[in-house]
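Figure S7 source data.
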Amino acid sequence: MQKLILPLNNCQVLCGYKNEAYRKAWGRPHYGQDHWSSKDKTVWAMGSGEVVAAGFDNVYGGTAVVLYKSVYLRTGGVIDLVARCYHMSAVYVKAGQAVTTATKIGLMGNTGQYTSGEHLHVEFDTDTKWPCYTIELKNNSNIMKKGSGPDTTIDPAGVLYVKASAPDNQSAKPNADYYSRGFGLEKDFLFPEFDAPDYKALYEKEQQRYSTLVAELRKLID
Ligand SMILES: [Zn+2]
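Tokens for the predicted zinc ion complex:
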């Protein structure tokens, strides 16, 4: 089991998954999140995985498709996921390559179509059998292919964690401009902390201790 962390260490969220303001502005659903960094443009691998496809796509620009296995979801449950990153100005990985959070995938950029400024599009797909297929495309591209549906993408806000500890030293916040225009909601940038204690386990341990104490007290009273 693994928790995936943000691909940009100094992350500002521009736009959320299936955001309504995005749909109104562009006339189509947004199947991922848009991230941006004012400082470090390095796109890191989000966990331990394997590159399925990488390079420059005619539609999506600098693209990396990575399979991450046994990914822990915020909502509970563990599944295999395909992560797709688009619009990078440089792609450093190759198909078949194993990656960890120490692997540089590429650089945030503004390449391809469906982009109006520098940002990283991050998308997760539960259909790991067809990692390069997307229902967003009307025609096949060179890397990405036209999918027939149903839509199998999920909200990155339910997948990604922010890892504040070294070496990543991550932070996440909304982009003020995009937030004021409704492109990012609170659920889109309030990522859980990667390093936070397991409160459920701590709670259960305390409950166990309490039960034992109560049982011992009962014995004393009886
Ligand atoms: Zn996007």
